[in-house]
Design brief:
This protein has about 350 residues and is of the alpha/beta class. The protein has two domains: about 190 residues, Medium-chain alcohol dehydrogenases, catalytic domain (Quinone Oxidoreductase, Chain A, domain 1, Alpha-Beta Complex); about 140 residues, 3-Layer(aba) Sandwich (Rossmann fold), CATH 3.40.50. Strands 3, 4, 5, 6, 7, 14 and 15 form a seven-stranded mixed beta sheet that branches. Strand 8, helix 5 and strand 9 form a beta-alpha-beta unit. It binds NADP nicotinamide-adenine-dinucleotide phosphate (NAP).
């Protein structure tokens, strides 16, 4: 079978995805080519398809920021990567460490540089990450976006401390990683979700307490009650403006509220602090150094990302549709034949 790649024609939603033959790429200086084994979806990939992501997709770009592959060729000047390595990539092509700059967020795989939904990918050497050996290909293809942002939320500027309470809002990809990483740090985890079925699975994943927001629409009161009226030290809000006021209401004195979710407001948002003394910040994924720190923890704890479903490459559009409409619990992955 000849190599194939999906291409995205933005603003046409899932109708903008098409598949075409892919010539075998050759790495330039400082680049690496990998034969893709699996790739996975994130909310941003739906936003890129529908044209609501802040960085517009380049017409015809190969989508997806998350994937895993085997290195088949290494360009001049590349060190630390060898043919045969099983690798993934960072979200941003060149954010290796230190503070995030606007220039970093302007270069992303699957948006304005060809991503993982193809037989081959060309990676900038700065962005190549070796994956933990114990992970399957679908698991290794799940770390880049949701994993790293959840890790960054819980470890920067200082890690969550054992015994602190972390409230996690949402039950998507980011939230599930956050539950696992918060538990890894010895935190007490409180989750807000929308169904009894998801609540059960969140408990199995390590959440100590789960609130069903359909049963308790004013869930901030339940969180305050659980914490003796004090509130929680950390909130990872993986929804965004629709839940931000409630997230703030749950914050203890000097709490850290990390807003990851980018869902738009459903009602006007006024004074998010509401008289409370705490810090709210919005973060976007993480650096190569964050990814490597996360992988050290993933290896040490033999942690595994939650996978909802794995579909074959020729069903990639169905994978998008299932991710959008199927209310998954965990990652939706596309796998390629070896
Ligand atoms: N800043 C970053 O670096 C970054 C990285 C990754 C993702 N994101 C953003 O973070 C958000 C979550 O991403 P994801 O990949 O985890 O998405 P996802 O897998 O699509 O999950 C979204 C979850 O949000 C919950 N939700 C939606 N509306 C809600 C509401 N009004 N109140 C409470 N919960 C609500 C739902 O949980 P229930 O089923 O429990 O209701 C749903 O499962 C998205 O906006 C995405 O764009 C940002």
């Amino acid at each position: 079978m000849s190599a194939l790649a999906y291409h995205l024609d933005p603003l046409h939603d899932l109708d903008g995805l098409s598949v075409r033959p892919q010539p075998l790429p050759q790495p330039g200086p400082g680049q690496v080519v990998a034969r893709v084994r699996a790739a996975s979806l994130n909310r941003r990939d739906l936003m890129l398809a529908e044209g609501t992501y802040p960085l517009p997709a380049v017409p015809g770009v190969v989508p997806l920021s998350d994937g895993v592959g085997e290195v088949t060729a290494v360009g001049a000047g590349v060190t630390g990567v060898t043919v045969g390595d099983r690798v993934t990539s960072t979200y941003y092509l060149h954010w290796t460490d230190g503070p995030q700059r606007l220039a970093h967020v302007r270069e992303q795989y699957g948006a304005n540089h060809d991503g993982w939904l193809a037989r081959y990918i060309t990676l900038e050497a700065d962005s190549v990450i070796q994956v933990p050996d114990h992970l399957t290909d679908p698991e290794a293809a799940s770390l880049t976006c949701g994993g790293v942002v959840a890790w960054a939320a819980l470890t920067k500027p200082a890690p969550v401390r054992p015994g602190e309470t972390v409230l996690i809002v949402g039950t998507g990809v980011v939230a599930l990683f956050a539950v696992q990483f918060a538990r890894m740090h010895g935190a007490r985890v409180v989750c807000v979700t929308s169904s009894a079925g998801k609540a059960k699975r969140l408990r199995e994943l390590g959440a100590g307490e789960v609130i069903d927001r359909n049963q308790a629409p004013a869930w901030e009161h339940a969180v305050l009650e659980m914490t003796g009226g004090d509130g929680v030290e950390h909130v990872v809000d993986a929804v965004g403006l629709p839940t931000m006021a409630k997230s703030v209401a749950c914050g203890a004195f000097n709490a850290r509220i990390t807003v990851i979710g980018a869902f738009p407001a459903t009602e006007p948002v006024t004074d998010p602090f509401g008289g409370r003394y705490l810090a709210i910040r919005r973060i976007a994924v993480g650096s190569r150094a964050d990814f490597e720190a996360m992988n050290r923890a993933v290896r040490a704890h033999r942690m595994r990302p939650v996978i909802d479903r794995v579909l074959p490459f020729d069903e990639a559009v169905q994978a998008y549709r299932y991710f959008r409409d199927g209310n998954p619990f965990g990652k939706v992955v596309v796998e390629l034949q070896p």
